[in-house]
Amino acid sequence: MRKSSADSLLTTLEAADKMYETGKYEECYNFLSNSQDINNIEIKWRICRAIYNMTKEDRCDRNTRKTLIFKAHDTIKNELNSHRDNPNAQKWYALILDAKSTCEGRKEKLEQLNTIKEHMDLAAELNPNDASLLHMLGELCYQVLDIPWYQRVTIELLYLKLPQYTYEDALEYFLKAETAQPRFYSVNLLRIGCCYMKINKQDQAKYYLKLAASYPAKLHYDHQAKREAADLLKKYY
Prior knowledge:
single chain, mainly alpha, 13 helices, globular
């Protein structure tokens, strides 16, 4: 007996998620791209997820990264209005838009900040326990705060007024992410430590930096977070 279309889709999604979870991003992308359910939103956002992670790999050069990101944007951009209740569609559109605007230059990146956050906020409203999404919201705040004051003045004179975030705003997102899924991400621990440093809560900063420095590294960003945490501990504590 042939499987129903729903069963077939579920089998495809389970296989793709297994590839993704084991870091086989390109294999996952190729598998989904050849799916008979290519127009299903559950396939489309997973394609974007696979592409996004492919572009983070060291072997992905700048031109390939740009081509892939633009492909992902074309895949998801027209799905948002008809799938406003799908948190993953909103989440991965926000991340792809962030990556696309980065490729297009600083002005475009800044102009898209509010749109990116709007879709992240909607995704978080639909799925408030998504730790990675909460981290990304914190990261968005942190990156804006990390712009030096003199660059901020130039940006606001030439381009647009930047959002008025605080380190407390960023910290709240990072802590919510940690509550949703403890110890899920080395960079989240690092960011919590850095935010506590910024607001002069040194005991808490030291605690989280130690957690980041001792995190069991698996991927390149884990090693990078460990090094940064260790450097901050050595320099300030």
